[in-house]
Amino acid sequence: MRKVYVVGLGPGGSQYLTAEARRALEAAEVLCGYTVYVDLVAPLYPGKETYTTPMTQEIDRCRWALETANSGRTVAMVCSGDAGVYGMASPVLELAQDYPEVEVEVVAGITAALSGGAVLGAPLGLDFCVISLSDLLTPWEIIEKRLECAAAGDFAVCLYNPCSKKRRDHLRRACEILLRTRSGDTVCGWVKNIGREGQCCKVLTLSKLTEEELDMFTTVFIGSSKTQNLADRMVTPRGYEKA
Q1: Would residue 217 count as lying in a domain?
Q2: pTM to 2 decimals?
Q3: Looking at the DSSP assignment, which residues form a beta bridge with residue 77?
Q4: Which domain covers residue 144, as residue numbers?
Q5: Within a domain: 116
């Protein structure tokens, strides 16, 4: 069989793997992916061959998976969260045009917006958007425009990749953009190491969020004007009480 499964692993712990993800991982002969993500799942499938590459070698990794599948072996390309949300599904499907005999199956996982939201309560109970603050592939000018539009639309906002060693001020800059139209008392929260050892979280206000020292393993939630802090849980009402 010539097949590549693109598998979302969820936040990391085995309890977050969907039944479909487990099926795909069991069917695969080779587990392929970024080293950190393969290390999370490989112990669950001892004896399976693995192929890993470091960060920034995503295209090489995808092409290797497709070429290996084209040779007749079944490959599982693993990603954290969901394979289609900042994951490897799109590059694999783009490159797959050069391998017409290889079947690609995308297997959904639990993205950080959902798993982190559950830790905080219900921050995404109504309309929301997800924005990455990484400008490695997207110019900051575009990210800034998206933040402005999210603020204007009063969306709850989930921020991926809020900070890194090279991008220490991106979260602060994002908060300043949102503060142009949102109150400093807007309810916000963050979750670090979702579903992994060292998980921690905090509910705070938008004005306080600008002072937080976070990292790439943290997902940030910024509430809409309707979001409330209920017993230190972040809740965006669905609106049923008004129906």
Answers
A1: yes
A2: 0.93
A3: 6, 32
A4: 112-235
A5: yes
For 135-168, how does the pLDDT look when each residue is reduced to its tens digit (9 = 90+)? 988 999 999 999 999 999 999 999 999 987 777 7
Quick check: is 243 in a domain?
A: no
Say whether both 145 and 95 belong to one domain: no
pLDDT tens-digit series, residues 68-82: 999 999 999 999 999
Same domain for 173 and 61, yes or no, is no
How many separate domains does the chain show?
2
Quote the CA–CA distance of 130 and 54 in Å, as a whole number: 25
